[in-house]
Write a structure and sequence with these properties.
It contains twelve helices and 14 strands. By secondary structure, it is an alpha+beta fold.
Length: 287
Amino acid sequence: MTPFDLREPDSLQEAISFLDPQDPTTRAIAGGTALMLMMKAGVFQPGRLVSLRKVSRQYSQIASADGEIRLGAMATLSDLAHSPIVRRELPVVADALPMLSNVRVRNVATLGGQLAHADPHTDLPPILIALGALIVAAGPDGERTIPAEELVSGYYATVLAGNELITDVRLPAQGSRRASYLKWTTRSADDWPALGVAIVLDVDDNLIRDARVVVSAATDRPTRLTAAEDALRGGHVDDALLRRAGEAAGEQVDPVSDARGSADYKRDLVRVSIGRGIRQCMAGGPS
């Protein structure tokens, strides 16, 4: 590992001042679970790392007010898993967290780091997109708000500037909406998925008033399947509707082949998963 400059700012503003949007070797580091692996593998050689450890307390809070949930970007995945607010207001997130990586990683990996890293295999982004989350980012000119579905611009790439940092995630409480997250892995249950499917439904009895369907891992970025959403919207839940939604999803999705499966395999997995995810929503959560 080559030598590099390490800065440990005491405030968010100071941290931003140490970032250089023109220098790709300058990075912020929070939990470091992904960045350290990249450094050890020689994939990334930093010129400067800006540690966010000393600014973490203010930006690790989890709060609820007036139906809006605020998740601090420096909250660890374990913080989210143990939060009474998350368990009460965002049960689909709470249900997914125990299967995200392993407890050692969850204890240090942060929400903001997972979002900014933009690994397409991470589990939380499709769930947050399906729930309608907004990402708040701070830079030299102040804050801006980014819809979660617009954050990732490509494989391991986001719309964040090199001197912007995610400060928190804001989203409505799940409320009466029904939600599910299905994760398919080819190895251990806590491994990166071959496919992740997040579904959020606004249901009146058996009628779907609105639907959001998001896939990840099988694609190069979290992707809303609007064709499946259109097929579901206004329909009554039955086998025929689930088949139509699955077929619509299979036609729209553009999967990538990798070590976890071929594109054709993943497309078929999407078709099957849509129906299973909807039935899980209607049953009230994972079985």
